[in-house]
Amino acid sequence: MKILVSAAKTGGHIFPAIAVGNEITRLGHEVVFMGTGEPIEVDALKTSKFKHFVLVMEGFRGKNFFSKIKSLMLIPKSIFSTIRTVRKERIDAMVGFGGFITVPIGLAFFLLRKPIFIHEQNSILGSANKLLSKVATINFTAFPLNISIKNNIICGNPIRESFKSFSEEIENDGCIKIYITGGSQGAEYINTELPKSLKKFKHQVLIKHQCGKDKKDLVNDLYKKFKINAEVMEFYNSPESQIKWSDFVISRSGALTISEVTSMSRGLLMIPLPSSIDNHQFYNAKHIEKINMGFIHEQKDGFEDLSSKLEEIFNQKTYNKWKNSQNTDHLLSAANIANQVIEKIEVT
Questions:
Q1: pLDDT digit string (tens) for 146-160?
Q2: 2-159+331-347 with 163-328: one CATH topology?
C-alpha cells in the first residue's frame, strides 16, 4: 500500500507528518511526501526514505488581496499535478496535516474517490482542515475542538522519537533552570520582557534562551545588564536536550512545542502569540492549563502579571509538581494514527 503524507511551511505541520509517515513505513507500507520544498521541510526529510514531491503553493489566510488571488489561481494547476502524481505512483490514500497545500491535494483525492485523512494539531480547526473535514474518512485531532465535526478521533499530536525516550536526571544544585524559547524565529516580547522580569528575583537561576536569528547580541546584553546567568543562542538544534536540562520552559504555545514539553514531564509558562490565527495558541495553552501542566500569561496583561506568574512558580516550586507529571496523550499518537489509517483503507 502507498500513502501520501502532506504538510508544509512550519515544523508544527511537518514533524508530526514525518512521525506518522515513519510509522506507516514501519508497518510495511510506502510513503510519498508532498510539500512546498521549504528549507525546513527538506532538512526534516533528510533522514527519511520517502519519495518527495513539491507543489508550488502560497498560503491564503493572513495574506493581502493580491497574494490571496495568486493562491486561488494556483489551485487548479496543483489539483491536476497531484492527480498525475497519484496515478503515476499508484497512491491509495492521503493523510494531510493542515496548511493551504492540503486543499488542492485533498480536492484531487476527492475527485479520484480515494480516502482522505486529516490531522489537526491545534485546539482550533484550521481553514484547510475545516474544508477537508467534511469529506475526510477520519478527522484526527490533537485536542478537543471548540466545534463538533464528524468522524472525529482525538489522538494527541505525533511527536518525534527523541522527545519520547529520555532518562530523568534531576540535578539538585540549588539553581532553577529555565529554557526560554520564542521558536525558531524568536519572539521580541519574550526576548525583551523575560530578562527584565527575572532581574527582581533573589532565586538563583540558570537560563538557556533561544532568541532567533540576529538577536543574540541584544538579548545577551540584557542578561548581562541584569546580572543573570544566561546562555543565549540563535537556535538550538536539539531542543529536547534543553527541555530535559530545564526545570520548566517559557515559550509560545504552538501545538507541537507544548505537546513535546509536557510529554517530557516539564511544565510551561505559556505566552500565546496574540496574532495567531483564530487565537489558537491561547486555546492550546488553555488545554495545558486544564491538565495542570502550565500557566498562561497573555501579553496584554502586562509586565506585572508576568512577574506575578514567575513569582508563583518560584515560591511554590510549581516546576517540581510539573516534573512529577507527564502528558501521555502524544506518546503513541503517531502509531495510533498510522494503524487506524491502514486498517480503514484495508476495509474500504
A1: 889 999 999 999 999
A2: yes
* Residue 252 near residue 273, CB atoms below 8 Å: yes
* Domain ranges, ordered by start, for the chain: 2-159+331-347, 163-328
Residue that the C-alpha cell 494503524 belongs to: 339
DSSP letter for 288, please. Answer: H
CATH topology of domain 2-159+331-347: Rossmann fold (3.40.50)
The separation between CA 174 and the C-alpha centre of its own chain, rounded to angstroms, equals 32
Q: How far apart are CA 260 and CA 108, in angstroms?
A: 33
Cell of 102: 492540503
CB 19 within 8 A of CB 97: no
As a whole-number percent, the residues of the chain with pLDDT over 90 amount to 81
> In terms of Cα–Cα distance, which of 129, 170, 72, 85 is closest to 255?
129
Assign 102 to helix, strand or coil.
Answer: helix
Task: Assess contact for 93 and 116: CB atoms under 8 A.
Answer: yes
The whole-angstrom separation of Cα 335 and Cα 164 is: 13
Residue with cell 503524507: 5
For residue 168, the SS3 value is coil
205: nearest Cα among 246, 242, 156: 246
Residues in the chain, total:
348
Q: Which of 175, 213, 218 minimizes the C-alpha distance to 195?
A: 218
List, for residues 246-266, the tens digit of each pLDDT value: 999 999 999 999 999 999 999
Per-residue pLDDT, 73: 75
Are 182 and 257 spatial neighbours (Cβ–Cβ below 8 Å)? no
| CATH number attached to the domain at 163-328 | 3.40.50.2000
**Could you give the CA distance from residue 295 to residue 277 in angstroms, rounded to a whole number?**
21
Under DSSP, is residue 117 helix (H, G, I), strand (E, B) or coil? Answer: strand
3-state secondary structure of 207: strand
Q: How far is CA 322 from CA 66, 161, 295, in A?
A: 47, 21, 11
Neighbours of 265 (CB within 10 A): 18
CB count in 10 Å sphere of residue 155 = 21
